[in-house]
Amino acid sequence: MPLNIIVGAQWGDEGKGRVTDLLAAEAQIAARYSGGDNAGHTVVVGEKVFKLHLLPSGLVQPHAIGVLAHGMVINPVSLFHEMDLLAGMGLDVSPARIKVSAAAHLITPAHIALDGADEAARAGDKIGTTGRGIGPAYTDKTARRGLRAELMFNPEELGDRVEQHIRHANKILEKIYNQTPLDPVAIAADYTQHAQRLTPYLTDTALYLHERLKANEVVLAEGAQGTLLDLDLGTYPYVTSSSPTSGGVFSGLGVSPRFVNRILGVTKSFQTRVGEGPFPTETFGVEAQRLRGTGDNQWDEYGTTTGRPRRCGWLDLVLLRYAIRVNGISELVLSKMDVLSGLQTVKLCVAYTANGQTYTELPLGPTNLAPFCPVYEELPGWTEDISHTRSLTDLPEGARRFIQRVEELTGVPVTMASVGPERTQIIRAN
Q1: What is the dihedral of CA 97, 72, 44, 342, to 10 degrees?
Q2: Which helix (H) or strand (E) element contains residue 396?
Q3: What's 214's DSSP letter?
Q4: What is the pLDDT of residues 168-220, one digit of tens each?
Q5: CB 158 within 8 A of CB 151
Q6: In whole angstroms, what is the distance from residue 152 CA to residue 282 CA?
Q7: How deeply is 400 buried, as exposed, middle or buried, from its count of CB atoms within 10 A (0-12, 13-18, 19+)?
Q8: Hey, is 8 helix, strand or coil?
Q9: Would you tell me how many other CB atoms lie within 10 Å of the CB of residue 141?
Q10: Are 72 and 251 in contact (CB under 8 A)?
Q11: What is the Cα–Cα distance from 240 to 273, expressed in whole angstroms?
Q12: What per-residue confidence (pLDDT) applies to 21?
């Protein structure tokens, strides 16, 4: 079957972009199925650093077609900015290479204003959103008052609908949040202009993907964020507004599960998250800074989209086993093995304790992790530089044992491990 699914097995930022880029070399299409420009995927090719937020990472491979499917919410301004940057780096961003679903929902300045106002109103109970309008856009979608990209085929109707949308949002901004209203006429005019550029890219992506899969072309389904940020399956309410798990692929792309070949779960060799919410294995001080890095390097733990420093801790196998189960992950990709080089010992969280009991699986899912304390297994580290290693057998004993222990405690093979940020700095088990 020609559909390969790549999911994040943590709170996002696992390195899915570089895995998609790598596998896109053997695929015809890379398709984003959820999220918006709150995502951030970085692909490093030689001296070039590609930072993608809406466009699929597979586009860095010059032969691949990129699909932005109806499960996404799209800010046209962000999309055009990203396309222009990639064009300046030598990538083809024409309608021949990029397909945008006519059923995808549009993000407007009102969504962004509502996002910021709502987060500010939460005071000490913030969610930690990126402020990109993602949540309000999905709210409008589920309330059946969203703006679908297909409106752009009729500029007059688009202008009217955008004006209505802004006026409705202004009532909330003024009366609930005491914010300055937006100009509905000016914003409607802007979106009429956006339509001229975006409409050549619009199509029925569900039909397009179905036909390509039937023709046995390889499609990579690329999600944003990670399992623990899934609206239903994540650490609610500190989650995103869509379904970045494998189940979201079928609703977000509109394709059948019968096409699935592989489900790859990408996880760091340690754990990170951006924003608020529970984090049982979080560490602090020198230990956290060692995992995070200084920010001087592109691969240090600072958000691609927000620039915020990520919270860091040790790899949590309780949560990883949960991610494997709810996604049906058939193989694991361990990223950033090189970051652990030089540590005398490395830790794996193998279980939790709470109220005198030990748990290897979550009794009620990941929503309330506050009562749980991690149980660690310490493994010998390694001091060798592994950035030039390209085979498992050439890794130092400590690194091999780390990978083996992850496999033993999850029951899933590690088929790839990254040892640096470059496209070529990857170890394949087969």
Answers
A1: -160
A2: none
A3: H
A4: 999 999 999 999 999 999 999 999 999 999 999 999 999 999 999 999 999 99
A5: yes
A6: 46
A7: middle
A8: strand
A9: 18
A10: no
A11: 13
A12: 87
pLDDT in tens, 75-117: 999 999 999 999 999 999 999 999 999 999 999 999 999 998 9
Question: What tokens does 294 get?
Answer: 């200084």
Element (H, E) at 260: strand 260-268
C-alpha dihedral, 61 to 66 to 72 to 75, nearest 10°: 90
Angle subtended by helix axes 184-198 and 76-88, to nearest 10: 40
Residue carrying structure tokens 């929902």: 105
* Residue 39 near residue 305 (C-beta atoms within 8 A): yes
Tally of helices (H runs) and strands (E runs) in the chain = 11, 19
The CA–CA distances, whole Å, from 132 to 11, 116, 266, 305, 332 equal: 18, 8, 25, 10, 30
Nearest to 352 by CA among 373, 371, 376, 323: 373
Strand ranges across the sheet with 219-222: 202-203, 98-101, 65-68, 29-32, 219-222, 3-8, 260-268, 331-335, 414-418, 426-428
- The owner of tokens 């300046």 is 88
Q: Contact at 8 Å (CB) between 83 and 93?
A: yes
Amino acid code (one letter) for 223: G
The H or E element containing residue 406 is helix 397-410
**C-alpha to C-alpha distances, 205 to 24, 37, 210, nearest whole angstrom:** 18, 19, 8
Token pair in block for residue 4? 């390969």
In whole angstroms, give the CA distance from residue 26 to residue 265: 18
Closest CA to 381 of 345, 423, 327, 413: 345
Q: Which residues carry out catalysis? A: 13, 41
Q: Which amino acid is at 22?
A: L
Q: Give the pairing of strands 311-316 and 219-222.
A: unpaired
User: What is the CB neighbour count within 10 angstroms for residue 32?
Assistant: 32
Q: Which two tokens stand for residue 46?
A: 């030689």
Question: What structural domains does the chain harbor?
Answer: 3-90+205-428 (3.90.170.10), 105-200 (1.10.300.10)
| pTM listed for this prediction | 0.93
Question: Which residue(s) pair with 48 in the sheet?
Answer: 45
Query: How many angstroms separate the CA atoms of 184 and 28, rounded?
Result: 41
**What letter represents residue 379's amino acid?**
L
Q: Do β-strands 260-268 and 3-8 pair in parallel, antiparallel, or remain unpaired?
A: parallel
Identify any residues that bridge with 32 across adjacent strands, giving them in sequence order: 68, 222
Could you give phi then psi for residue 152, rounded to 5 degrees? -70, -15
